[in-house]
Amino acid sequence: MANSPKTQSVPSADQEPRRSAGRPRSDSSRNAILDATRRLMTHTSIRDLSIEAIAKKAVVGKTTIYRWWPNKVAIVIESYADQLDMHMLVPGNETPRENLIRQLDRLVKQLRGKNGKIIADLLAAAQGDAKVLAQFNEFYMNARRDALLQTIKDGQKSGDFSEDLHTATAVDIVLGPIILRLLSGESAMDDHFAENYPEMAVHILSPRRVMGQRAPVTEIPASAPEQTNERKAKPKPEAKVDPVLLKQQSLF
Q1: Is pLDDT at 82 greater than 90 in this prediction?
Q2: Pair (182, 99) in one structural domain
Q3: For residue 48, what are the domain limits?
Q4: I want to staple 198 with a disulfide (CB 3.0 to 4.6 A). Which of 7, 53, 105, 184 is the partner?
C-alpha cells in the first residue's frame, strides 16, 4: 500500500495534460502583452515605452516578454501588424496608372491617423539602431516598396509610365514626399496633400516626349579658334632704332 502512491505520482499520462495546458497559458500571455502594448501606445511614444510598463500592464514577468521579443520595438511591430496589413496596397484590375493612384491614396489615408504616428515613431527609433531598422523594413517598408515597384514596372510595359525611369528610384520619388510629410507632423499630411498628391505623383512618372532630349548646342565655327590663336600669336611690331643713337651708345 505504501508503494502505490509512488507508482501513481509519475505516470506519463499526467505529464501530457500539463504540457497541453501550458501552451494555452503561453498564448494567453502573448496576447495579453500585445494588447497591453497597443493600449500603452495610445498615450505613449515608443521612446517612452518600456518593457517594465508592458509587463506590468499585461501582468507578466519581463522574462516572459524576452522569451518572444528581443526589444520593445519588435513588440510594437507585432502589435500593429494586423492593422497595417498589405491588403490595401495589392494592385487591382485597373490600369497601372489607376492602380498606383489607388495605392498612394490608400497609403496616405492609412498614415494620416494613429497608425501614422506609430510608423513615424518606429522610423525615428530605427535611425539609431541597425537591428531596429532591419525590423522596420521587414515589417513595413519592404512590402510596400515591392508593391509599388511592381505597379510601376507594369506601367512601363503598358506605356503608362516612362520606360526611361529607373524603377527603384521611381519608388523613392513617389514615397519620399509621403514619408517627409509623415515625419513633419500630423498637420503636414493635410486634406490638400491627401486629395492631390497621388495624381501628381503619377503625373511625374508619365512619359514625356521631351524626356531625355538635350538643348541644342551652338557649334563654334572651325575658323574661330584659328583666328583667336592668330591674334594671340601675332608678334608686336618692332620698334624703330635710330642708327645714330645706337652708334653713340656703343662708344660707352
Answers
A1: no
A2: yes
A3: 25-79
A4: 105
